[in-house]
Design a protein that fits this description.
This protein has 99 residues and is α+β, with helices and mostly antiparallel strands. It has one domain: Arc Repressor Mutant, subunit A. Helix content is 42%, strand content 11%. A three-stranded antiparallel sheet has the order 1-3-2. α2 packs across α3.
Length: 99
């Protein structure tokens, strides 16, 4: 069962409306205890934060894709599996070479 939107958006802050889609995606994932989120949930979070129910999924996905392409390894958001995105920070770096 999907957890509710992070508390941050439920008490809407006017300052959130000025943040970029990337900033809001990072906020959403952080508020979800740094667990990756499905794109659908990221879009819901961004719509609620911006107060605009007309934001399209494809706009958010395109923005995140461009961010990942431009930033490469320094991307703040990464695709963890199809339709799922997480933070670009590796918390547990590999200590052994891959087999």
């Amino acid at each position: 069962m999907a957890s509710p939107l992070p508390q941050l958006v439920q008490t809407r802050d006017a300052a959130l409306a000025d943040l970029s889609y990337i900033d809001l995606a990072v906020r959403a994932i952080t508020e979800n205890e740094n667990h990756p989120l499905e794109m659908k949930r990221l879009v819901e979070f961004i719509r609620a934060a911006k107060g605009n129910p007309n934001i399209e999924r494809r706009s958010v996905e395109a923005t995140i894709a461009q961010h990942m392409k431009a930033k490469g390894d320094k991307s703040r958001v990464v695709k963890t599996s199809p339709g799922v995105y997480g933070l670009g920070v590796r918390r547990y770096p590999r200590t052994e070479p891959a087999a």
